[in-house]
Amino acid sequence: MGSDAATLELLPGAEKLPDFRGESTWVVSKELIPEQMAALKAKGYTYLVDLAGVDNQGVDPRFEVVYEVCDLRRKKHIRIKTKVAEGDSVPTVSHIWKTADWHEREAWDMVGIRFSGHPDLRRILMWDGYPHHPLRKDFPLAGLTTEMPDIAFTAKAPLEGGPFVTSSAPYAQDREPRAHPSEERTL
Amino acid sequence: MSTATIEMGDALARTAEHDEVGEKLVLNIGPSHPSTHGVLRLVLELDGEVITKVDTDIGYLHRGDEKIAENMTWNQFVPYTDRLDYMAPLANNVAYACAVEKLMGMELPPRARVTRVICCELARISAHLLGLGAFAMDVGAMTMFLYTFTEREKIYNLIELLTGARFTTSFTRVGGQTRDLPPGFLEGVSEFCAQFPARLDEFANMLNRNRIFVDRTKDLGIIPADIALDFGLTGPNLRGSGNDYDVRRAFPYLDYESYDFEVPVGSTGDCYDRFAVRMEEMRQSVLILRQAIAKMPGGAWQVHDSKNVLPSKDKVLTKMEELIHQFLVVTQGPDAPVGEIYFGAENPKGELGFYLNSHGGGVPHRLKIRAPSFANLSILNHLLPGHTVSDVPAILGSFDFVMGECDR
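Structure tokens for the assembled complex are given below, as produced in the milestone run.
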């Protein structure tokens, strides 16, 4: 990766993580994100491939925002990460790449990361007013009941009998009642 | 009623100063409407027949695939990838398996790579045929849909021969496929390749200079190349605008650099260009298929890594060691290292990417799907204003999106 030196110069204050599978990753503090991203775009990284929110529950700060950016002319791909604590917000990059608009809305909807300066930070996949962020690690797979009126489906998802679901119930009959309809519990 | 009248022809020329003339009408299209190809909902603000503002509402097909992925092993997620872009499940399977293999650091044997190229290109032709048929039907050419479905049927028969399923294929596993190519499959693909270009010519004859089709698609929904890239458009929608980004070329995987094919690009970025790019891509896919069949190597069809790759069934049934490995891989999943990768593949709709964040073990810590239709649709709020309501089905049809992967 010959242009690493150029990238280094590009990202002062960025910490480079060890390369993994030929991909380079940089950690940038969230205050520097708009400035760094604008500089990256000016350097030819014109394509924001993806933006993902990651919940590392138990780690401080709790969340990560992962940006994948591409330079299509020189065929280079790098990853920029920034860390953000719960309740804090990351400056938006939606004015730099328009595609970030929806990606940031999704990160807010799914993981609950706020993006300051975003023009329209509404939920995108879940419905308006939904109180939870489903991709947080403390959100159970079965879902949570909500008290919302006018929503047809607010109860927990019926997961019993699902082939891949591991619940904490001690007996198989409790975990998968339909699989063993017998009345008596046997060990 | 004391409203001023305006001539029909003036509707397009109206500006904000005419606002006092008519009042704005809010029109709701979808989520269940023939032209929205699934469950896309558009809220249009109209001034007469001209769209002044758009709110694109997605999420009606959200099933929480990324959450589900965090609760199962790597191989168990393969059937869920069928349901992303359900017009090309084979290509999704391949993209996902390649992503996990990149994370695991596996090198596929040549036969598996060529097999997967065949899967991808068959899926591309099948998906483009549906996109083409549905697009033509949206703008009034009903017959086209029946023609393309006849061809898709042949591909479905081949896919059934290959995977045992016609629609939800779940063909790949980490480190290989569920099985080797069945006898007669390559011959079947050759036969398909032999007759398909002639059918494609028929489709082209029917649409390329069809007055109604051209009138409804030319110079409509124009996206300049830089705007397209800014909104993260990929696939035929980006290339229709003249940007030649194709993941198979820019970041080759599965030895795509060793195949001889062209990447067609459009010039104006209108609906017609997006259609033309798809037509040409099908021809190029046929060329790739022929090359793949010609060079199909023998040998292993999956990675040899007994702790992480499922052993072949006959060995599981007869050998103790393989039975233990099978049990390990199925119950605990392939043992991925700690790390994070992004892998993008050129799918029929655009760049399907997987960001995998692994904390080690058989289950992902975070799996983010970069869905091409999600990014492609994000431009609608910007693109539709200024067009008329009757342009909406044509523009949506030319985008060829799938809500399954948009909403995940």
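Chain A touches chain B through 40 residues (CB under 8 Å). The longest strand of chain A covers residues 47-55. Further analysis is deferred to the final report.
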